[in-house]
Every structure is written in structure tokens, then in C-alpha cells.
Amino acid sequence: MVSIYKIALLAIHGTTLAIKGFSQIPTDSLAGEYYLQGVMETATAILLKPDSTFEYFYSYGAVDRQGQGLWKVIDNQLILNSRRKPKTDYAMRTKVVPGDFITIKIICGNPQILSLFDVTLYTDEGEKYGSTNSEGMLKMKRSKVNSIDLFFTLCPERYSSFPINSADNYFEFKVEPWFAEIFLDNVKLTITDTGLTGEHPLLKGSDFSFIKAN
User: Fold this and answer.
1) Cα(214)–Cα(210) distance, rounded to whole angstroms?
2) What tens digit of pLDDT does each residue of 59-71 get?
3) Which of 15, 103, 143, 202 has the CA that lies 20 to 30 A from 41?
């Protein structure tokens, strides 16, 4: 298993990865460090702090993600909640430019991820699919665009959809700081003698086991 000290938050506005470790918390209370067990190639850790805040770390393949929020206990269940997820992960700007193309442009401070966006265009000529290149751009034959779906391939559990009510053919999407953040909505875990069992915000199932660190 990957140590929590090696789990890095995916850099959004630069190429530097921020490494964050867990602080030491007495293990004679619920507060402490919990590590996911039995899931191949996946590392997840939960830090419960004495002030009822938590940090949630997830690592799989090339992506490292983080979330945070408040925890509480009701009837032997730990409940995790983050702040409300913003409506969209991108700020869109559109305009008309000369030419016979539709242009999609991703704006992000981390050039390493610019090629990792999938795009679905809903046009008068039907659906069109494509992916951005290393410069964060995608061009397609021009037609009237009615809506755009934007996916970041390293965060497959969510996407952003944008209705289009104009004849614009240039669409720029600036990545928001929270676009890879984990948002937990009433995630429930049962308290056991050895740790926690229950849900994972990014994985299917409800019987994941988290063992408390000694």
C-alpha cells in the first residue's frame, strides 16, 4: 500500500506536487488516521481531527486527490460531509472567431493535464466527440453548438455540462481550483473495534474497510 506520506494532491495551477502527511493524534479516541484495506492499486486515507474536521486522501494510478470537511457520529456511524460542490468545475468564455471550425480550449496552469479532457458537442448535425491535445485544444468542423459536456479523464465520476444559446464557435474553459477536489456528501462509515467500514465516495460498494493506524 502507498504510504499516506507519499499521497500527493494533484497540482492544478503548477507542476509541483504538494506532499502532506498526517499529524500525530492520540489513538485512544476516534480521531486519528485510517487506511483503506484490500483494494488493489488504490490508496485511501482518512484523517479525523479532534476539532471534528477531516482530510480525505485518494491515490490511484497517475492521480492523487484530496477532500476535506466536517465529521460527526450518529448511532455508531461516522458521517463525512464536505462543503457543497460548486455547480461547475470550469469558467466558460465564448466568442465568434473567423473560420470553419469549432474550437475548444482548456486553460490550466498545469500543462501536464491539458491532453486529458474529453469533449462531447451536441450540435445541429448530431453529437461529436473528441479529446484535447497537449496544448489543451480541440478543433472540429463548424456547426451550430447547442451544448457541451466536458470530462476530465482522471476524475470520471463527474462532468460539467454547458448549454449554448449563441452562434459562437470558440469555447474557452478555465479550470477552477476545485475541479479535482473530492466532495463527500453524507458518506457513512460504521465504527468498529479496528477502524471503520462503509462507503467510499469514489468507488462502488458499501463495505470498504479502513483500519486505524496505531
Assistant:
1) 13
2) 998 789 999 999 9
3) 15
